[in-house]
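User: Before I run my own analysis I want an independent prediction to cross-check against. Here's the chain; please return only the structure tokens and, at the end, one sentence I can use as a sanity check.
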Amino acid sequence: MAVRQGRYTLLLPARPSIHSSSAVVGRTEGEGPLAEEFDYCYDDDAIGEKSFEKAESALHREAVTRAVLKAGITMKDVDMIMAGDLLAQCIGTTFGIRDMGIPFVGMYGACSTMALTMATAALLVDSRAAGCAVASTSSHFASAERQFRQPLEYGGQKPPAAQRTATAAGAAVISAHKTSAPCIEAVIFGKIVDMGIKDANNMGAAMAPAAADTIANFLNDTDTSPLDYDMILTGDLGKVGSELLIELMQKENGVDISAVHADCGLMIYDLEKQDVHAGGSGCGCSGAVVNSYIMKRLANKKLNRVLFVGTGALLSQTSALQGESIPSVAHGVLLTSGD
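Assistant: Structure tokens:
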């Protein structure tokens, strides 16, 4: 049963394990530096579907299917799935997994959804409410552009601070602890932080304060320092947000995380060679990076302790048009390499 450590952090004595994980991505992501890490890279972002929304559903379905198959189980062995995406009513998820016959817990954390679903699934397994749970998420560049900004045909120019929504999906199968598998030792659910940022093309600036708040709270609760971790991984602040996070941690908390900080939005693309402005974003960005690159290195012990902090900007089409600010949240999961 989970044990509260400090004010915000929950320790998981059962240490739920990540038996398998999967990441599938689109063409641009498959041209990036992590191409060899993903389970599959699609050449066509339409993925053979008639709309980009249907393509995202196909992407999500593929990630979950591959993760379950890699675990050596069937859909009937999964007690529940925690999943969500960026689209209204989470249609990328619901239409993707509707035929799987798994009890569904829909979750929305914007770009923090991978951390949110993993944390929740781990809590349910730790409490024995679930013997086996799947955590998953997805995003698609074109479906997100249509919903949050302008249709691609409009051809609007983006400022340097803008990030590219990743066409990607990630899934993890979480169940009782197995010594050879990476596991989840602690989780932290973040507070909503709103610093009044209204620029929807500068998500990094909106999300960085939430990331700083959650990281600082986790370090305080656990009485640890950044050097106690191989990596403090955010997902996904991009170039602008990552620089701001390091500055905020130093100035407001007196903590320097620069030596161990990494960001999924900076890892998934090559900012010098690919036209992605400040880096990647979207639920699938951290979903794909964590469930490929990170999990592989935890499994082979190249990484032993990774604090993964997913970051999400909680805006909508309506709130943006009404001139609202962009509230943000960051959820954390402590991933370890196991025994």
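Sanity check: Residues 183-336 form a domain with the Peroxisomal Thiolase; Chain A, domain 1 fold (CATH 3.40.47.40).
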